[in-house]
Amino acid sequence: AKPAIAEQLALALAELGDLAGAARAWSLSRAANPADPFVRAETAIALHRAGDAARAAAELAELRAIPGAGTYAARAEAAIRGAAEPR
Predict the structure, then answer these.
(1) How far is Cα 56 from Cα 48, in angstroms, rounded to an integer?
(2) What is the pLDDT averaged over residues 35-39?
(3) What is d(CA 46, CA 58) in angstroms, rounded to the nearest whole number?
(4) What stretch of H or E contains 54?
(5) Region 15-37: what's the mean pLDDT?
């Protein structure tokens, strides 16, 4: 999938509540944009929301290793922490 299309699909699927589908779409975008910290952060968040904590943690670890990706990693970590907290 083209990166922009995969990102739009991921956003639409998440909005519809298809968290597994959104995680798959973000993973497609990640495959096309492996060095894009925004895409990597969104992939980690989507994987976590879809219930794949191990892959989300691995994605976060890889994201942290990208030079200049600290802000994106911090945002992803905050989103994941927020999703884990009881409401």
Answers:
(1) 5
(2) 93
(3) 13
(4) helix 53-64
(5) 93
> Are the beta carbons of 48 and 56 closer than 8 angstroms?
yes
Measured distance CA(41)–CA(19) in Å, rounded = 15
Residue 72: burial class (beta carbons within 10 Å; 0-12, 13-18, 19+): buried
Q: What is the pLDDT of residues 49-65, one digit of tens each?
A: 999 999 999 999 999 99
Strand boundaries in the chain, DSSP class E:
none
Round to whole Å and give the CA distance between 4 and 29. Answer: 8
Residue position matching structure tokens 């907290």: 85
> Tokens standing for 47?
């994987």
Consecutive H or E run containing 31: helix 19-32
For residue 87, pLDDT beyond 50: no
Max Cα-Cα span within the chain:
36
